[in-house]
Write a structure and sequence with these properties.
The protein is mainly beta. It is built from two helices and ten strands. Helices cover about 10% and strands about 30% of the residues.
Length: about 160
Amino acid sequence: MTQNFTGGCQCGAVRYRVSGPVHHASICNCRMCQKALGNLMAPFASFEAPVEWTRGRPSHFRSSGRVKRGFCSNCGTPLTYQWGDSNPSLTIGSFDRPDAILPTVEFARDNRHPVFAHYDELLEEPLGSTDEERDLLAILKSYQHPDQDTTNWTPRAGNPSSR
């Protein structure tokens, strides 16, 4: 049985669905991917089936002569990596269930950020471990799209804190 994967951007303006199985899942440490995701590495998953855009469509930035990257023009969430005319790869963090996709390949390991060699040595601080954090979490109202498709979700335009 083929598994369906869903996901989208943080604000919910762009949503997608794609049928599995996952063809290829990887992380890339190259500087271009780091800059594109604003992160230390970039995890992507590709599928043989085409991506179905179920709400909105990503905007694109051509990061090189062969690669374009898709993102939500409303909230900025990085969504795709596309080489030439191939199916776009999707950022694993944008899936509703990112834990269902496990990368099996690492690219540009020689450019891996030094923190990953010491990742298990980092101090662990659970969310909500202080009174101040618990108070903040109690009043925080998230505008983030839930990790599921829903028919009554309306994306918020712009920065909610500016209203």
